[in-house]
Amino acid sequence: MKSLKFIKQTGVRLIFSAAILSITSQSFLAQIKIGAIEIGGIKRPTATRDKNPQGKNQKGNPVTKPETQEESSKTDDPPEWWLKVIASDIAKAKEEVDSYTQAGKMYLVSSPSAPWLLRAVSSKAREEFAVDKKMNDWRQANAGNKFDTGLDELAASAAKKLPGYIPNLNNFANRDAAIEQMMKAKLKNFATLKLFKIGLFHANWIIEKNDPGLPTSRYREAYIWAKDASDDHNYCHLYGFVVQQDYAGGGTFGATYAYLNTDTLFGCPAN
């Protein structure tokens, strides 16, 4: 920025110029204050207070007034509409849990609610989600917030229903040693697991076909019921796998492979 050249001015012109500079300076500072927003994921760093009594740094540029703690926290607060959406989703999960009966429903919560159930019973899962959304500082500064309160209420409902939510033993009705070994290898946490049941739901291959009616692959569903010693909750997992063979042509299928399809919270065996 070019330096200002000072020249002799009349008294009137000096007063007029000072007024213009004052207005410009106020506009500039207002823009800096408003600029505490995220653009492209990068937030403007909070300015520090300069000891220069003239309000300028060593380069002669104006020093920005630092944000107060209250102002800074406001810029990091999750938007209210977003919190309302989360609270609604948690409430739906709680409603599903509360209405669950072994005779009346096949599942404790539907798939969209499964992550909220895990976050309700696991502090680790809750904090991981909050880190992704930059919420942990806000949570600590706002005790009793709707996010944690809702999850705590969902956890209380789950404590009543999850222990009796046991997988159908038909999920493990069929055995295949080679496939079961393949399933175990797909679990990164297998070393910390205590297995209760393992097996395949389908006794035979289920063939999938495309619109013209030609086979594309065949598959079988398989499951592992286990407890993970590294969990910070007392519930078990039902790991669901798809074991598949892709169609190779001429009525033949390729090599067998398996992939983890679901990870659902369940109760643990009584013994």
Tell me what the structure shows.
This protein has helices spanning 11-34, 69-76, 80-98, 114-121, 123-132, 136-141, 146-161, 177-185, and strands at residues 38-39, 42-43, 193-200, 206-209, 215-228, 236-249, 252-253, 257-266. The chain is of the alpha+beta class. The chain has three domains: 12-36 and 43-75, no CATH class; 78-164, no CATH class; 169-266. Helix 3 packs parallel to helix 7, helix 4 (114-121) crosses helix 5 and helix 4 (114-121) packs across helix 7. The longest helix is centred in the first third of the chain and has 24 residues, at 11-34.
Class derived from helix and strand content = alpha+beta
Low-confidence stretches: 1-56, 67-75
Number of helices: 8
Question: What characterizes the major β-sheet?
Answer: 6 strands, antiparallel
As a whole number of angstroms, the C-alpha radius of gyration is 31 Å
Tell me the distance between the termini.
Answer: 77 Å
User: Quick one: how many beta strands?
Assistant: 8
The total tally of domains equals 3
The helix/strand series, from N terminus to C terminus, equals HEEHHHHHHHEEEEEE
User: Average pLDDT across residues?
Assistant: 80
Tell me the overall shape: elongated
Helix content: 25-40%
Give the strand content: 15-25%
Provide key terms for this protein:
8 helices; elongated; 271 residues; six-stranded antiparallel sheet; alpha+beta; two-stranded antiparallel ribbon; disordered N terminus; 3 domains; single chain
Helices and strands in order:
Elements: H1 11-34, E1 38-39, E2 42-43, H2 69-76, H3 80-98, H4 114-121, H5 123-132, H6 136-141, H7 146-161, H8 177-185, E3 193-200, E4 206-209, E5 215-228, E6 236-249, E7 252-253, E8 257-266
Antiparallel strand pairs: 1-2, 3-5, 4-5, 5-6, 6-7, 6-8
Helix pairs in contact: 3-7, 4-5, 4-7
